[in-house]
Design a protein that fits this description.
33% of the residues lie in helices and 20% in strands. The chain has 313 residues and is α/β, with parallel strands linked by helices.
Length: 313
Protein backbone atom coordinates (compact mmCIF):
# COMPACT_ATOMS: atom_id res chain seq x y z
CA UNK A 1 0.00 0.00 0.00
CA UNK A 2 2.85 2.38 0.78
CA UNK A 3 4.18 2.08 -2.73
CA UNK A 4 0.74 2.76 -4.18
CA UNK A 5 0.34 5.91 -2.17
CA UNK A 6 3.82 7.25 -2.78
CA UNK A 7 3.71 6.76 -6.53
CA UNK A 8 1.44 8.81 -8.74
CA UNK A 9 -0.29 6.11 -10.79
CA UNK A 10 -1.43 6.30 -14.37
CA UNK A 11 -5.10 6.10 -13.38
CA UNK A 12 -4.67 9.25 -11.34
CA UNK A 13 -3.09 11.08 -14.25
CA UNK A 14 -5.95 10.01 -16.50
CA UNK A 15 -8.58 10.88 -13.91
CA UNK A 16 -7.14 14.37 -13.53
CA UNK A 17 -7.17 14.91 -17.27
CA UNK A 18 -3.45 14.33 -17.80
CA UNK A 19 -4.04 11.27 -19.95
CA UNK A 20 -2.27 10.93 -23.27
CA UNK A 21 -5.63 10.57 -25.03
CA UNK A 22 -6.85 13.92 -23.76
CA UNK A 23 -5.53 16.13 -26.50
CA UNK A 24 -2.00 14.77 -26.58
CA UNK A 25 1.01 15.93 -24.60
CA UNK A 26 4.09 17.82 -25.70
CA UNK A 27 7.16 15.95 -24.58
CA UNK A 28 9.85 18.07 -26.26
CA UNK A 29 11.35 19.03 -22.95
CA UNK A 30 12.23 16.64 -20.17
CA UNK A 31 11.64 17.42 -16.53
CA UNK A 32 8.29 19.18 -16.95
CA UNK A 33 5.93 16.21 -16.69
CA UNK A 34 2.96 15.92 -19.02
CA UNK A 35 1.66 19.12 -20.49
CA UNK A 36 -0.23 20.19 -23.55
CA UNK A 37 1.03 23.73 -24.03
CA UNK A 38 3.66 26.05 -22.59
CA UNK A 39 3.55 29.80 -22.96
CA UNK A 40 4.37 33.13 -21.37
CA UNK A 41 1.51 35.10 -19.83
CA UNK A 42 0.66 38.01 -17.56
CA UNK A 43 -2.42 39.65 -16.11
CA UNK A 44 -4.07 42.53 -17.93
CA UNK A 45 -5.43 43.94 -14.66
CA UNK A 46 -3.15 46.78 -13.47
CA UNK A 47 -4.35 46.34 -9.88
CA UNK A 48 -3.30 42.70 -9.83
CA UNK A 49 -0.04 43.52 -11.62
CA UNK A 50 0.78 46.14 -8.98
CA UNK A 51 0.52 43.65 -6.11
CA UNK A 52 1.23 40.35 -7.88
CA UNK A 53 4.42 38.35 -7.58
CA UNK A 54 5.52 38.31 -11.23
CA UNK A 55 2.99 38.26 -14.05
CA UNK A 56 -0.01 37.90 -11.72
CA UNK A 57 -1.42 34.96 -13.69
CA UNK A 58 -2.44 32.90 -10.66
CA UNK A 59 -4.50 35.73 -9.22
CA UNK A 60 -5.98 36.60 -12.61
CA UNK A 61 -7.06 32.99 -13.20
CA UNK A 62 -8.72 32.79 -9.79
CA UNK A 63 -10.54 36.09 -10.37
CA UNK A 64 -11.76 34.92 -13.76
CA UNK A 65 -12.83 31.58 -12.29
CA UNK A 66 -14.85 33.08 -9.47
CA UNK A 67 -16.40 35.71 -11.77
CA UNK A 68 -17.57 32.99 -14.14
CA UNK A 69 -18.73 30.34 -11.68
CA UNK A 70 -15.88 27.92 -12.34
CA UNK A 71 -15.14 28.01 -8.62
CA UNK A 72 -17.18 29.17 -5.60
CA UNK A 73 -14.06 29.92 -3.62
CA UNK A 74 -10.44 28.89 -3.20
CA UNK A 75 -8.08 27.64 -0.52
CA UNK A 76 -5.15 30.04 -0.50
CA UNK A 77 -2.36 31.45 1.66
CA UNK A 78 -1.78 35.07 2.63
CA UNK A 79 0.55 37.06 4.81
CA UNK A 80 -1.07 37.31 8.25
CA UNK A 81 0.77 40.45 9.28
CA UNK A 82 4.08 42.30 9.21
CA UNK A 83 5.99 39.26 10.43
CA UNK A 84 5.06 37.37 7.23
CA UNK A 85 3.62 34.34 9.03
CA UNK A 86 1.55 32.41 6.44
CA UNK A 87 -2.19 32.25 7.08
CA UNK A 88 -4.38 29.65 5.41
CA UNK A 89 -7.65 31.10 4.16
CA UNK A 90 -10.76 30.32 2.15
CA UNK A 91 -11.33 33.18 -0.28
CA UNK A 92 -14.83 33.57 -1.68
CA UNK A 93 -14.53 36.98 -3.36
CA UNK A 94 -12.17 38.76 -5.71
CA UNK A 95 -11.16 41.08 -2.88
CA UNK A 96 -10.10 38.15 -0.72
CA UNK A 97 -8.29 36.52 -3.65
CA UNK A 98 -6.28 39.66 -4.36
CA UNK A 99 -5.37 39.88 -0.66
CA UNK A 100 -3.55 36.58 -1.13
CA UNK A 101 -1.25 37.67 -3.96
CA UNK A 102 2.50 37.39 -3.60
CA UNK A 103 4.86 34.67 -2.40
CA UNK A 104 5.94 34.11 1.21
CA UNK A 105 8.45 31.21 0.90
CA UNK A 106 7.48 29.81 4.30
CA UNK A 107 5.66 26.54 4.88
CA UNK A 108 1.89 26.89 4.70
CA UNK A 109 -0.04 23.64 5.35
CA UNK A 110 -3.18 24.89 3.66
CA UNK A 111 -4.59 21.52 2.58
CA UNK A 112 -6.42 21.11 5.86
CA UNK A 113 -8.61 24.02 4.79
CA UNK A 114 -10.12 21.92 2.01
CA UNK A 115 -12.35 20.16 4.53
CA UNK A 116 -13.48 23.49 5.91
CA UNK A 117 -14.18 24.78 2.40
CA UNK A 118 -16.52 21.87 1.69
CA UNK A 119 -18.05 21.08 5.08
CA UNK A 120 -18.23 24.50 6.73
CA UNK A 121 -18.39 26.88 3.76
CA UNK A 122 -20.45 24.37 1.70
CA UNK A 123 -18.49 25.17 -1.45
CA UNK A 124 -19.40 22.96 -4.39
CA UNK A 125 -16.53 24.02 -6.65
CA UNK A 126 -13.25 24.61 -4.84
CA UNK A 127 -10.11 26.16 -6.29
CA UNK A 128 -6.76 25.28 -4.79
CA UNK A 129 -3.31 26.84 -5.13
CA UNK A 130 -0.35 24.86 -3.86
CA UNK A 131 3.26 23.89 -4.28
CA UNK A 132 4.23 20.77 -6.25
CA UNK A 133 4.22 18.57 -3.13
CA UNK A 134 0.78 19.84 -2.16
CA UNK A 135 -0.65 19.30 -5.63
CA UNK A 136 0.80 15.77 -5.52
CA UNK A 137 -0.97 15.18 -2.19
CA UNK A 138 -4.18 16.68 -3.56
CA UNK A 139 -4.26 14.23 -6.45
CA UNK A 140 -3.59 11.29 -4.15
CA UNK A 141 -6.37 12.46 -1.87
CA UNK A 142 -8.73 12.48 -4.85
CA UNK A 143 -7.82 8.89 -5.69
CA UNK A 144 -7.49 7.56 -2.12
CA UNK A 145 -9.83 9.75 -0.03
CA UNK A 146 -8.99 8.27 3.38
CA UNK A 147 -10.38 10.70 5.92
CA UNK A 148 -11.40 13.11 3.16
CA UNK A 149 -14.43 11.55 1.54
CA UNK A 150 -16.55 14.01 -0.38
CA UNK A 151 -13.68 16.47 -0.68
CA UNK A 152 -11.75 15.44 -3.79
CA UNK A 153 -14.72 15.57 -6.15
CA UNK A 154 -15.31 19.21 -5.18
CA UNK A 155 -11.90 20.30 -6.47
CA UNK A 156 -12.74 22.35 -9.55
CA UNK A 157 -9.33 23.80 -10.34
CA UNK A 158 -5.81 23.03 -9.10
CA UNK A 159 -3.14 25.65 -9.75
CA UNK A 160 0.45 24.66 -9.01
CA UNK A 161 3.28 27.06 -8.26
CA UNK A 162 6.90 26.36 -9.24
CA UNK A 163 9.01 25.59 -6.18
CA UNK A 164 12.74 25.06 -5.85
CA UNK A 165 12.94 25.45 -2.07
CA UNK A 166 10.77 26.50 0.85
CA UNK A 167 11.62 27.39 4.44
CA UNK A 168 10.39 27.06 7.98
CA UNK A 169 9.24 30.41 9.33
CA UNK A 170 12.23 30.86 11.63
CA UNK A 171 14.57 29.89 8.81
CA UNK A 172 12.99 32.52 6.60
CA UNK A 173 13.41 35.11 9.33
CA UNK A 174 17.07 34.15 9.72
CA UNK A 175 17.69 34.56 5.99
CA UNK A 176 16.08 38.00 5.91
CA UNK A 177 17.36 39.40 9.18
CA UNK A 178 20.65 37.52 9.38
CA UNK A 179 21.89 37.49 5.80
CA UNK A 180 19.95 40.38 4.28
CA UNK A 181 20.28 42.57 7.40
CA UNK A 182 16.71 43.81 7.18
CA UNK A 183 13.95 43.50 9.83
CA UNK A 184 11.31 41.22 8.41
CA UNK A 185 8.66 43.83 9.23
CA UNK A 186 10.31 46.17 6.70
CA UNK A 187 9.94 43.72 3.81
CA UNK A 188 7.29 44.43 1.18
CA UNK A 189 8.15 41.64 -1.24
CA UNK A 190 10.45 38.64 -1.46
CA UNK A 191 11.44 36.59 -4.47
CA UNK A 192 14.01 34.08 -5.72
CA UNK A 193 15.65 35.12 -8.98
CA UNK A 194 18.85 34.22 -10.78
CA UNK A 195 20.17 32.10 -7.93
CA UNK A 196 19.53 34.74 -5.28
CA UNK A 197 16.99 35.26 -2.51
CA UNK A 198 15.92 38.91 -2.70
CA UNK A 199 13.87 41.16 -0.46
CA UNK A 200 12.39 44.55 -1.29
CA UNK A 201 11.22 47.14 1.20
CA UNK A 202 12.92 50.16 2.69
CA UNK A 203 15.91 48.90 0.74
CA UNK A 204 16.88 46.08 -1.62
CA UNK A 205 18.88 43.22 -0.14
CA UNK A 206 19.85 39.78 -1.39
CA UNK A 207 21.77 36.63 -0.52
CA UNK A 208 22.94 33.76 -2.70
CA UNK A 209 20.72 30.68 -2.66
CA UNK A 210 23.66 28.51 -1.60
CA UNK A 211 23.59 30.28 1.76
CA UNK A 212 19.81 30.55 1.96
CA UNK A 213 19.43 26.85 1.17
CA UNK A 214 20.96 25.97 4.52
CA UNK A 215 17.54 26.81 5.98
CA UNK A 216 15.45 24.95 3.41
CA UNK A 217 12.97 22.49 4.88
CA UNK A 218 14.21 18.92 4.80
CA UNK A 219 11.53 17.58 2.47
CA UNK A 220 12.87 19.72 -0.37
CA UNK A 221 15.94 17.50 -0.62
CA UNK A 222 13.87 14.51 -1.79
CA UNK A 223 11.30 16.37 -3.89
CA UNK A 224 11.78 15.79 -7.64
CA UNK A 225 9.09 18.22 -8.85
CA UNK A 226 9.96 21.83 -9.67
CA UNK A 227 6.99 22.69 -11.87
CA UNK A 228 3.90 21.17 -10.19
CA UNK A 229 3.54 18.37 -12.71
CA UNK A 230 0.06 17.26 -11.53
CA UNK A 231 -1.69 20.62 -11.51
CA UNK A 232 -4.31 21.64 -14.04
CA UNK A 233 -2.15 24.68 -14.70
CA UNK A 234 1.42 25.23 -13.47
CA UNK A 235 2.70 28.77 -13.02
CA UNK A 236 6.08 30.28 -12.16
CA UNK A 237 8.56 32.93 -13.12
CA UNK A 238 11.58 30.87 -14.18
CA UNK A 239 12.10 31.02 -17.93
CA UNK A 240 10.09 34.16 -18.64
CA UNK A 241 10.99 37.82 -18.93
CA UNK A 242 10.56 40.02 -15.86
CA UNK A 243 6.88 40.81 -15.28
CA UNK A 244 5.71 37.63 -17.03
CA UNK A 245 4.92 34.08 -15.93
CA UNK A 246 5.85 30.78 -17.48
CA UNK A 247 2.68 28.68 -17.74
CA UNK A 248 2.09 24.98 -18.44
CA UNK A 249 -1.42 23.94 -19.43
CA UNK A 250 -1.75 20.29 -18.44
CA UNK A 251 -5.42 19.23 -18.47
CA UNK A 252 -8.51 19.96 -20.55
CA UNK A 253 -9.93 21.81 -17.55
CA UNK A 254 -6.77 23.88 -17.36
CA UNK A 255 -6.82 24.72 -21.06
CA UNK A 256 -10.50 25.72 -21.02
CA UNK A 257 -10.08 27.91 -17.94
CA UNK A 258 -6.91 29.57 -19.18
CA UNK A 259 -8.19 30.42 -22.65
CA UNK A 260 -11.50 31.54 -21.17
CA UNK A 261 -9.52 34.05 -19.13
CA UNK A 262 -7.57 35.09 -22.21
CA UNK A 263 -10.75 35.60 -24.26
CA UNK A 264 -12.34 37.60 -21.44
CA UNK A 265 -9.36 39.95 -21.25
CA UNK A 266 -7.98 38.83 -17.88
CA UNK A 267 -4.69 37.54 -19.30
CA UNK A 268 -2.46 38.19 -22.28
CA UNK A 269 -0.02 35.67 -23.70
CA UNK A 270 3.22 35.52 -25.61
CA UNK A 271 5.40 32.88 -27.23
CA UNK A 272 7.54 31.27 -24.52
CA UNK A 273 10.12 30.40 -27.15
CA UNK A 274 10.87 34.10 -27.58
CA UNK A 275 11.46 34.60 -23.86
CA UNK A 276 14.86 34.83 -22.24
CA UNK A 277 16.23 32.79 -20.55
CA UNK A 278 13.44 30.50 -21.80
CA UNK A 279 12.54 26.88 -21.26
CA UNK A 280 16.12 25.68 -21.63
CA UNK A 281 17.05 27.16 -18.26
CA UNK A 282 13.87 25.86 -16.65
CA UNK A 283 14.57 22.40 -18.01
CA UNK A 284 18.10 22.49 -16.62
CA UNK A 285 16.83 23.43 -13.15
CA UNK A 286 13.97 20.91 -13.25
CA UNK A 287 16.31 18.06 -14.18
CA UNK A 288 18.82 19.19 -11.57
CA UNK A 289 16.13 18.98 -8.88
CA UNK A 290 15.19 15.48 -10.00
CA UNK A 291 18.82 14.36 -9.97
CA UNK A 292 19.43 15.81 -6.51
CA UNK A 293 16.25 14.16 -5.19
CA UNK A 294 17.29 10.81 -6.63
CA UNK A 295 20.73 11.06 -5.04
CA UNK A 296 19.32 12.00 -1.63
CA UNK A 297 16.67 9.28 -1.77
CA UNK A 298 19.34 6.67 -2.46
CA UNK A 299 21.43 7.97 0.43
CA UNK A 300 18.48 7.71 2.79
CA UNK A 301 17.62 4.24 1.60
CA UNK A 302 21.21 3.14 2.12
CA UNK A 303 20.93 4.35 5.70
CA UNK A 304 17.71 2.39 6.18
CA UNK A 305 15.61 5.53 6.51
CA UNK A 306 11.99 5.79 5.45
CA UNK A 307 11.54 7.88 2.32
CA UNK A 308 8.05 8.89 1.29
CA UNK A 309 9.33 9.83 -2.16
CA UNK A 310 10.31 6.28 -2.96
CA UNK A 311 9.75 6.75 -6.66
CA UNK A 312 11.17 9.45 -8.84
CA UNK A 313 10.84 10.05 -12.49
Amino acid sequence: MRGMLCAVPEELLAGAGHGSNDGGAIMGYRGFGRYKEALAAKTMDPKIMSVGQDGGVTTALLCYSIDNGIIDGAVLTRKSGPKWVPEQVIATSKKEIIECTGSIYALSPNMYKLKDAVREYALEKVGYVGLPCQIDALRKMQLYPFGARGIGERIALALGIFCSENFHMEGLRTIIEGYCKMPIEDVNKMHITKGKFMVEGKKHAEVGMKKASRYAQDGDSVCPDLVAEYADISIGSIGSEEGWNTVFLRTRKGIDTFYGAVSAGYIETDDINKAKPGLELLEKLALSKKAAAKENIEKRKAMGLFVTRDQYY
